[in-house]
Amino acid sequence: MDFNPLSKLYRTALLEYSTNKAYQYLIDHPTHTYEIYNPSCGDLLFVQARICHHTIEEIAYTGQGCAISMASAHIMCKLLTGQKVTHADRLDKLFRQMLTQTLQDAEKKELKEAIILEGVTQFPMRIRCATLAWEGYEGMTPHEEGECAND
Q1: Mean pLDDT, the chain cut into blocks of 10 residues (151 residues total)
Q2: HSE (CB half, 13 Å, CA atoms) of 35?
Q3: Is 15 domain-assigned?
Q4: Which of 66, 110, 114, 146 falls between 20 and 30 A from 12, CA-CA?
């Protein structure tokens, strides 16, 4: 049994993020979408965004998955909403690097609460769970029918 208080705090925070439904919905008139599946554990996410004037106005997801993938999806949406695409791409890159190598303190600070998922590095088989939503963000393709609210 693990009595480490930080480990318990980590599990509690992950559970809170994974059950938060704030970004778990379908977007009306998305401009970009992507469906991604992790066959090793059965996680399935459908990531959608409305990107206008190079800014992520709205990003959300639906699907099911383990606590790590759902927490990561929520944190990703929270972090990327309102960001310029160039900055969101940088955050995506930093997040993935965090799970495979050491980041500088300034880079970790850019990731804000996404840093909580750094602990996943202790479980290599779960890294894909943590990156699934981010892979969905990276793989999103534009929809012709999606409209910018500002256009």
Answers
A1: 56 85 96 94 95 96 94 97 97 96 94 93 90 96 66 42
A2: 6
A3: no
A4: 110
